Amino acid sequence: MGQGDSQGARTTRSLPGKADSGQKATPPAESAQPAEGSSALERLDYLLRAVNRRLNGVTRSRLGEFGLTLPRFHVLLTLGRCGPMSMGQLQEQLNQSPSSITELVDGLVNGGLAERERTSEDRRVVVVRLTPAGQTTLARLKSFRLEALEEALKQVLPSACQTTVEVLEQLEKALGDAGTPTAAAPSE
Fold it and tell me: What is the reported pTM?
């Protein structure tokens, strides 16, 4: 079983401030499967999270080769998809605090995967872009993720796969139309 699997033995953690009491916390609710008889929406919510966790687990297994963390990979992915962005735009896309984005970008810059540049129009604005090494790293990681997804999809009927893609595209659009940010889905 991979990291983050919801099946198999359940792990527990000590509650903060309760290490001596022996009380244990259960895993987060999102990792538990919905109860039998749950609504289709509850099962859909669980399955979307479960697929995302498993795909992130596949990605995480290779990130060490590149000196990356999953959050830094998500920054690379966003820059690769959207192109150069200001720190503020990146923060908005990834729904992170300014200090978190700064720390993540610092790591990518120090690793030679991204670079910062002040704009000539407004010297206060810092734009982040991928370096050629960042583009190569992102391409390799995306290829690995897609190979893993392709291998898993061999177990799914092609018509079911196409229908699922169409439904998810409609769902993403509907949620985006409802005011939910859609440009930086972390499961990509």
Answer: 0.69
